[in-house]
Design brief:
alpha+beta; Arc Repressor Mutant, subunit A; 3-stranded antiparallel sheet
Length: 478
């Protein structure tokens, strides 16, 4: 049987750390990067007698995520104890949600390979994160700073059928959650991780195959690579007459392969029961509607608005809205300078380039939207030309400041005096008789060389349009 006779069935369990000041059930800071085991207390360490208190903001953010993704919000939900015994779980149980989660259903539209698909969600529930195991050459340790951090789990139906679709889903989900202020979704800090459920079946079959689970994926590229490998592995096993075991596997990124960890647990293995130290979460309709009114403009709606309001091409709108910070920055520049297309060109060409080169987020750039708008205005008024504008932009990126002040202090204003430019044109022609003769004989490209020489003589300050006119006039060509 050929590999094309099989199809993959994929579901994801996406774990998202919420943007709260404190942990889910205690007042410890919810912060990344502190010294190990310094952001802990008796509650998140599970010491006897410590009682949890639910974080209202974590509940609000989870409901907001559910509203953004079209979920049904449970008016009454509850927390449950999920029992398991790992070194990174200090209480030997996790406070999670089982049969009464905050959010049910919903879905997310994705595009992969030119095809649109709606991926259904099963549920979104809220739980506490666990600690982090650290492994050294001869010892291991556990950092409990992360234990008790509010963690939202988004579970999909098995609607995905390829690594590309899984990647598209994760990217679209991340974009919505960042837009909504739900999470920073910083993969390097572990804000977003996922488990993969993957199986294969004969193409066209409606029966689900035996699934394997790949745990704790923390990069989108890793998800794509792991799925590509695991789908191929399962097909090879079945083609060879073997059977797939329901098990949990780990992804070894260096080896480019999945390895078996243990047999897959079932829900009853965790011995769920209602958390006795927490009351049910009761939400009123008025409360939910108040949160619904606070929902932000979603990426797809913003893309459409950029095309409609700013008359941008679809491509520009897509690039600018891919990141909320970049979209906010562009809008601030466009509204300040009054030229959306120029703002789009600068952000897409220069701002995104330097951010990429420096590995920097838009929120840390020293070039304020107001400064970039002023820079665009200087070019439009022909105070400076584009080469000088890019020189000024580089200075602003390094040190910040005001472009008008910078141009004045450095004497970078464009030379627009016709007589001065005429004199420079004469020098260029005298110094380069060959290109001058070529242009007279019909070689249009020679004029660009001569314009470049005028710009060089003026140290980049000459108005290129006036330089071209002066050269043509002196060469006797109008």
């Amino acid at each position: 049987m050929s590999p094309s006779a099989f199809e993959a069935v994929i579901g994801l369990e996406v774990h998202v750390q919420l943007r709260t000041e404190t942990k889910l059930f205690c007042a410890c800071p919810n912060r990344f990067g502190a010294e190990p085991n310094t952001l802990v207390c008796p509650v998140c360490l599970g010491l006897p007698g410590a009682l949890p208190v639910a974080n209202r903001e974590a509940i609000r953010l989870t409901v907001m995520a559910g509203l953004l993704l079209g979920c049904e919000i449970h008016r009454i939900s509850r927390f449950d104890r999920k029992s398991y015994f790992y070194p990174d779980m200090p209480k030997n149980f996790q406070i999670s949600q089982y049969d009464r989660p905050l959010c049910l259903g919903g879905g997310l539209e994705i595009e992969a390979g030119g095809t649109h698909k709606r991926v259904r969600l099963t549920r979104i529930h809220l739980e506490e994160d666990v600690g982090k195991s650290l492994h050294f050459e001869t010892t291991s340790g556990v950092d409990f700073n992360r234990a008790g951090a509010p963690l939202m789990e988004i579970v999909t139906e098995p609607d995905l059928s390829s690594p590309d679709e899984a990647m598209a889903f994760l990217l679209a989900l991340k974009q919505i959650l960042v837009y909504g202020g739900i999470s920073d979704c910083n993969l390097e800090q572990g804000n977003l991780r996922c488990d993969i459920n993957c199986s294969v079946r004969p193409a066209g079959s409606s029966a689900l195959g035996v699934k394997t689970e790949i745990k704790n994926m923390n990069t989108f590229k890793g998800v794509h690579r792991a799925l590509t490998y695991e789908i191929d592995r399962q097909i090879r096993v079945l083609r060879g007459g073997g059977t797939i075991r329901q098990e949990t596997r780990r992804w070894d990124d260096d080896a480019g392969a999945t390895d078996s960890m243990r047999s897959k647990e079932y829900a009853h293995d965790y011995r769920y029961f209602p958390e006795p130290d927490l009351l049910p979460v009761e939400l009123t309709e008025a409360q939910i509607e108040t949160w619904r009114a606070d929902l932000p403009e979603l990426p797809a709606a913003r893309r459409a608005r950029f095309v409609r309001e700013y008359h941008l091409p679809d491509y520009d709108a897509g690039v600018l809205t891919a990141d909320k910070g970049v979209a906010d920055y562009f809008e601030a520049v466009a509204r300040s300078c009054g030229n959306p297309k120029a703002a789009s060109n600068w952000v897409m060409t220069d701002v995104l380039r330097v951010l990429g080169e420096q590995g920097m987020e838009i929120g840390h750039i020293r070039v304020t939207p107001e400064a970039l708008a002023k820079l665009i205005g200087l070019v439009e008024r022909r105070v400076i030309n584009m080469p000088t504008a890019r020189e000024v932009f580089a200075a602003l990126f390094e040190h910040g400041g005001d472009p008008e002040t910078l141009v004045r202090e450095r004497g970078l204003g464009q030379v627009s005096d016709a007589s001065a430019i005429d004199a420079l044109a004469a020098q260029a022609i005298e110094a380069h008789p060959g290109p001058a003769s070529d242009y007279r004989n019909g070689k249009a490209a020679a004029l660009q060389f001569l314009i470049g020489q005028v710009m060089k003589l003026s140290r980049g300050k000459a108005d290129p349009r006036l330089a071209a006119e002066a050269l043509k006039r002196r060469l006797g060509i109008n």
